[in-house]
Design a protein that fits this description.
Blueprint: H1 3-17, H2 31-44, H3 54-61
Helix pairs in contact: 1-2
Length: 67
């Protein structure tokens, strides 16, 4: 799977579905689309990523800014 093409295709779909709600400016790739393309690419390569534990998420979200 070509990640660039997948991102472009999914972004085009997103723009078409949301065309009445979006301002006519340059938009970044929505994080959920970027993450989904990455997840599918890794899956196609039989690679998985660990998920954070609840304790790790709590710690990560407890900081407002860097150390």
């Amino acid at each position: 799977m070509d990640m660039s093409f997948a991102n472009q295709a999914l972004c085009l779909e997103y723009l078409l579905k949301n065309r009445g709600e979006l301002d006519p400016v340059v938009h970044e790739v929505p994080a959920r689309i970027d993450a989904e393309v990455g997840r599918l690419k890794l899956k196609s390569m039989n690679i998985s990523i660990d998920k954070l534990t609840q304790e790790q998420e709590k710690y990560m979200n407890s900081w407002e800014e860097g150390t």
